[in-house]
Amino acid sequence: MSGKLSNRRLLAATTPIVLAVLALAVTLVGVPSVQAAASMTVAQAISGQGSSGTVTGYVVGQPTATNTVIRSGFTGDTALALADSSGTTNTNSMLYVQITAAYRTQFGLQSNPSLMGRTITVTGSLEAYFAHAGLKSPTSMILGGGTTPPTTAPPSSGGPLEPYYAAAAGKTGESLKNALHTIITTGDTAVNYDAVWNALKVTDQDPANSNNVILLYSGISRSKSLNGGNTGNWNREHVWAQSHGDFGTGTGPGTDLHHLRPEDVQVNATRGNKDFDNGGTAVPSAPGNKTDSDSWEPRAAVKGDVARMILYMAVRYEGGDSFPDLEADHATSGGSGPRHGKLSTLLQWNAQDPPDSFERRRNDLIYSNYQRNRNPFVDHPEWANSIFG
Ligand SMILES: [Ca+2]
Ligand SMILES: [Ca+2]
Ligand SMILES: [Ca+2]
């Protein structure tokens, strides 16, 4: 008797908890399925002319005639061209999108040239425009792609139920690394080296001045328009030095936005291809940074950023594609091997400088607007020690 009673009491006590857990599970499962509205590729929209639908693609220019799309010096806000790759120049692979008055302020290229290379999702009538495969009379235009909302992303903190990281739940060490590799290489896309310029103007925008980007090591806020190769310009710093694996600037690790940052041309050259470690003498043009013959120590505010970028590269590139298997190691000996040091220092830096809103926003934007993949260590810095500690 008493046993039954206590069982019943136990049941009464746990039922609300069970219901709450079920409700949470339904909520978590339900949200992504609602967001997963069918979005077609540009190729599908070209072959599906005569119907209507929702298309996601990269902004590749402004159409001005049937076979002419301009990529700079935009002359109007009334049309843009979409493609399935940000590097597309062949107009046969593009969809010409009519931008009606309601959308011109946000999506016209003359007003918003930085849209080049970004993804947008458009709903409308799939019909010829400029005597070319097109989409007219849009009823919705949003920044970002397909099944993901434009500027939101999976929660940056949270438990193992996070949908994006579901396959990594409960894992540690090598099996966590393998799960994360699969997660961040499934459905990801890459930008080409030219598109990196415009992407960095978005991902590294100065929160206090939308005309500027923040330079990684020097911390300087500099005009977005000063990108280039001359003194006083900023350029595309490969935090994982290109020579460590010799992957160059073909679309792949050399264009992966998760480790590319704007930096002053001369500071970038001074860092060169050095490994990362503590120590050295101060770098006058980049306050807070130090360097010696074989290593570079970034300023305190970006030490963790640097660590998480290197560790991302080690997990993202495992040699299963045409690129080398990149790995972090404990050396600062440089060389062309696909290795980058110094792991023990990087793990310290990851702990000292946790992700802040700038780094999280950057990760969100790369995920939603460019590569459809995330840096897991920005979302879960604790995973660095689980895998590499
Ligand atoms: Ca050193
Ligand atoms: Ca930081
Ligand atoms: Ca690797």
Automatic annotation (TrEMBL):
Pfam families for the chain: DUF6359, Endonuclease_1
SUPFAM superfamilies referenced in this protein's UniProt entry, alphabetically? His-Me finger endonucleases (SSF54060)
**Which InterPro entries does the record associate with it?**
Endonuclease-I (IPR007346), His-Me_finger_sf (IPR044925), YhcR_N (IPR045939)
Q: Where is this region: Disordered?
A: 271-296
Q: Which residues form the Endonuclease YhcR N-terminal domain?
A: 40-142
Its domain of life? Bacteria
Q: List the keywords (alphabetical).
A: Hydrolase, Nuclease
What protein does this entry describe?
Endonuclease YhcR N-terminal domain-containing protein
Species of origin: Plantactinospora endophytica
